[in-house]
UniProtKB/TrEMBL annotation, chain A:
Residues 85-436 form the Solute-binding protein family domain. Gene3D superfamilies: Dipeptide-binding Protein, Domain 3, Periplasmic binding protein-like II. Keywords: Signal, Transport. It comes from the Bacteria. It comes from Nocardia yunnanensis. Belongs to the bacterial solute-binding protein 5 family. The keyword Membrane does not apply. This is ABC transporter substrate-binding protein. GO terms for biological process: peptide transport. One of its GO terms (cellular component) is ATP-binding cassette (ABC) transporter complex. One of its GO terms (molecular function) is peptide transmembrane transporter activity. Residues 1-18 form the signal peptide.
Automatic annotation (TrEMBL), chain B:
Keywords: Cell membrane, Membrane, Transmembrane, Transmembrane helix, Transport. This is ABC transporter permease. Residues 99-300 form the ABC transmembrane type-1 domain. It is a multi-pass membrane protein. The chain crosses the membrane at residues 12-30, 103-126, 138-161, 173-197, 235-257, 277-296. It is found in: Cell membrane. InterPro entries: BPD_transp_1_N, MetI-like, MetI-like_sf.
Length: 537, 319
């Protein structure tokens, strides 16, 4: 049994490698159906992994969020184009000047799918319940509500949420499915019972069936009329039903899409693109916001203690080669410590660029001289370090192998340590690594604080340092979007100045879509929203 | 005979206990724990220490190893295997949901394997043309070495994506079961064919075969009436091996054919270090092995009466 599991793992790895070999062309592709949206029909969607839980508050993986996002509405919505916050359940909101108090005015007449009204008290009960679920069950929701002091119902349509300290990121967080609003009956359940498919929300779709590890069926909510301002229309969804089926094997997902057994699929791999397009379909993709893929540097280890070494690594990488060789045109090179779709991103491509001569010069000046095998040495210490990574993204291994070659060209010896997710967690928690390779998705610049602040997980193992520490905490008190963006922009430069993150590429989501499907949309966090989706029949 | 059965049942209980204990120890030795997995894996978001400690307490992971082991064992004896850490389902419910699909797949696969494997062995043992025999006996090693995922993908490519005869996933009944059953059956049929063929060949050399021919029986009649029954016994003793082969095939097959069965459940729970579910599956698999071997032992005397005589002689000698 165990051996069989290992075999499947090997198979997956082999397919992944194959996946990484081929580039992909998704620029061509036929366009989506045009004309006015048609109502009705069942969208058959193929997920790549089983959703873990039916509760939006406890959702963490993309495949889980693709399902749970559809059944809840959020207080506000975030425009994926501009990053601006728009009305959804709340039509207006105010933030106190100290960024500790947030007041939301709800639209009137909103009901949950069990018929009960959605009121200010529902919002209070939801936030209270997420704090009670805690960081272990609701890691994202609980981190958004860190410092939660309580909610007060001012009147049935108005709720005031207070924090013990400044928490400017909270406003964007209220647009996420993790802080979506569910009915009183649902939030009164235990954490485990909230996972079993009985969740009641006010969203454009409702659960009709939940089969753990197999499928989830959603039906249109009749009478829905409070859609977000980001939606194409505020009324009911176009689709009658969505059937999510877990189809773990990528070749089977692609074949099913091309042969008309599915209408849309997750994680279309580069080598599947031509088959999808030959069936009349297309691949839609979008870059994830947040911290792009990169090497987080443990500044207490070996040669990485030398700031000149950390500075030399940034121009040593040819990111375009990484994208062109391994990933294909759906992917972008990283140009800062934030991905380009993140609000507050600043383009630092003048610094995050390929310039091997500059890298070598920095190392020469710092006294690292090439040894007999081409790897540099200083005071008897070799310029070498290893990187830990987990197979959470199919391209990781191939990207890092190419990175290894690129770094060798400047005399740096990078060793690869592929780990299971569990092993990687243990090594992270013990800060037992030289480099850690990963990314984080969040459509708010506060992801810089959770990734780099000295009082957070601090995988850099660094000590206090200005101006970075000040910038990361000040952005939490900045209520003016312009002022906050300035602080977040300066923080990106400060992270680079200290050599805490060596950016590589931005993650993208690639969704395979059949020829009869229109209006499949990514929300601001690069997850799917099916309200505007329709089928041409 | 009664004593024999009691002995076998006690042995079975011992095997179940050992499976439970070894899986507990194995999972305990894995790096990290399910709380790390649940809180860190997907999000990369740090969880404050208090929340993680609270969750460890909820699942008893903060208790000493022996306390955890004893609690899990006593609950398991009472039929309570706990709750899945990642999905919140009870383990018995998760197994119960996954089991029917796996039973159908394993049953159909086994049936196909026995028919195909036995047919192949009988044909190879029957023919007197060396080239045909060589060809037929070359098939099982090929079947045994074909990777299941590859067979499954090829079958899907041809019969589902191109010919559109059967659904690629989510199907029930004949159309939904035939391709996965063939995928499971191929390596098992190879084992059945190899063991049965070897046994048939050695039985053909027995003196009673010549006696049967002397009575004027035809070659087919001798093979079916006189050779097959004694030759089947050794093949049946490795039924435990078939079962293992089927269970291993089920893991890969359920992934390729998107079937929500025990194999998929096993794979997903190992990935998430979902200890209660993995333990439930290990104990369940051990139970299947024990029951299959017990049934084979009990069926053996029916095929070969000498076994019972030998046993009763032994019992008499001990008494």
């Amino acid at each position: 049994m165990k051996r069989a599991v290992a075999l499947t793992g090997a198979v997956a790895a082999a397919l992944t490698l194959a996946a990484c070999g081929g580039g992909g062309d998704s620029g061509g592709g036929s366009g989506e159906p045009s004309g006015p949206p048609q109502a009705g029909g069942v969208l058959r969607y193929g997920l790549s992994l089983a959703p873990t839980c039916s509760d939006p508050a406890q959702s963490a993986t993309n495949q889980t969020i693709y399902v749970t996002r559809q059944i809840v509405d959020s207080l506000v919505d975030q425009d994926p184009e501009t990053g601006q916050l728009k009305p959804w359940l709340a039509d207006t909101w105010t933030v106190s000047p100290d960024a500790r108090t947030f007041t939301f005015h709800l639209k009137p007449g909103i009901t949950f799918s069990d018929g009960t009204p959605l009121t200010a008290d529902s919002v209070r009960k939801n936030f209270d319940s997420i704090v009670a679920l805690g960081g272990a069950k609701a890691p994202l929701g609980a981190s958004y509500l860190a410092g939660y002091a309580g909610s007060t119902v001012l009147d049935p349509q108005t709720v005031r949420v207070e924090f013990s300290g400044p928490n400017a990121q909270f406003l964007q967080a209220t647009s996420t499915p993790q802080l979506g609003i569910q009915s009183d009956a649902t939030v009164a359940k235990s954490a485990d019972d909230r996972c079993l498919g009985g969740n009641v929300g006010s969203g454009p779709f409702t659960y009709t069936e939940w089969k753990q590890n197999a499928s989830a069926t959603l039906a249109k909510r009749a009478g829905y009329s409070w859609g977000s301002a980001v939606f194409a229309s505020q009324g009911e969804a176009h689709l009658d039903k969505i059937v999510f089926t877990v189809v773990p094997e990528s070749g089977v997902r692609t074949g099913s899409l091309a042969s008309g057994q599915l209408d849309a699929i997750s994680d279309a791999l580069p080598q599947d693109v031509s088959q999808i397009e030959s069936g009349g379909g297309r691949v839609q993709f979008t870059a994830n916001p947040g911290v792009p893929f990169g090497l987080q540097v443990n500044v207490t280890r070996g040669p990485l203690r030398d700031p000149a070494v950390r500075a030399a690594l940034v121009p040593a990488l040819d990111r375009k080669e990484l994208v062109d060789t391994v990933l294909g045109p759906q992917f972008k090179v990283a140009t800062s410590v934030l991905a380009s779709k993140t609000p507050g991103y600043v383009d630092l491509s003048s610094r995050v660029k390929y310039d091997p001569d500059a890298a070598k010069k920095l190392l020469d000046q710092a006294g690292w001289v090439p040894g007999g095998d081409g790897i540099r040495v200083k005071d008897g210490q070799r310029l070498a370090a290893s990187v830990i990574f987990a197979p959470v993204f199919a391209g990781n291994q191939a990207i890092l192998e190419l990175t290894q070659q690129q770094l060798k060209a400047i005399g740096f010896d990078l060793r690869l340590e592929p780990l299971s997710v569990a092993e990687s967690n243990v090594r992270q928690n013990n800060k037992d690594f030289d480099f850690d390779y990963y990314n984080s998705t969040r459509a708010d610049g506060d992801i810089l604080r959770t990734t780099f602040a000295v009082d957070q997980r601090n995988l850099n193992a660094r000590g206090p340092s200005e101006p970075l520490d000040g910038l990361l905490s000040q952005q939490l008190s900045a209520t003016d979007p312009g002022a906050r963006a300035k602080l977040i922009g300066d923080a990106q430069a400060a992270v680079l100045d200290q050599g805490l993150w060596i950016p590589t590429i931005e993650l993208s989501q690639a969704i395979g879509v059949g020829k009869n499907v229109a209006g499949v949309k990514f929300e601001a966090s690069a997850r799917l929203q099916f309200h505007d989706t329709w089928l041409q029949r | 005979m009664g004593r024999y059965v009691i002995g076998r049942v006690l042995q079975a209980v011992g095997v179940l206990w050992a499976a439970f204990t070894l899986s507990f120890a194995g999972l305990y030795l894995l790096p990290g724990d399910p709380v790390d997995m649940a809180t860190n894996a997907a999000t990369g978001t740090p969880v404050d220490a208090a929340a993680a400690a609270e969750m460890r307490a909820r699942y008893g992971l903060d208790q000493p190893l022996w306390t955890q082991y004893w609690a899990a064992l006593t609950h398991a004896v009472r039929g309570d295997l706990g709750r899945s850490i990642s999905s919140g389902q009870t383990v018995t419910a998760a197994l119960g949901e996954a089991l029917p699909s796996t039973l159908v797949l394993a049953g159909a696969g086994l049936l196909l394997a026995v028919i195909a494997g036995a047919g192949l062995a009988l044909a190879a043992a029957y023919t007197r043309r060396p080239w045909l025999r060589g060809l037929l006996t070359a098939i099982p090693p090929v079947g045994a070495s074909l990777p299941g995922f590859w067979v499954g993908l090829i079958l899907l490519q041809v019969f589902s994506f191109r010919l559109k005869l059967v659904p690629a996933f989510g199907g029930t009944g004949f159309a939904g079961t035939v391709l996965p059953a063939v995928t499971v059956a191929i390596p098992v049929a190879a084992v059945v064919a190899q063991v049965l063929y070897a046994s048939l060949v050695s039985t053909w050399r027995q003196p009673f075969v010549e006696v049967a021919f002397a009575k004027g029986a035809s070659r087919w009649w001798v093979q079916l009436r006189h050779v097959l029954r004694p030759a089947a016994a050794p093949a049946l003793t490795v039924a435990g091996l078939w079962t293992g082969s089927v269970l291993a095939g089920v893991v890969v097959t359920e992934t390729v054919f998107s079937r929500p069965g025990i194999g998929r459940l096993a794979q997903e729970s190992v990935l998430h270090e979902d200890i209660p579910v993995v333990q439930g599956i290990v104990v369940f698999a051990a139970l299947v092995f024990v029951v299959v071997n017990l049934l084979v032992d009990l069926a053996y005397p029916l095929l070969d009466p000498r076994v019972v005589q030998a046993n009763s002689r032994k019992e008499r000698a001990h008494a």
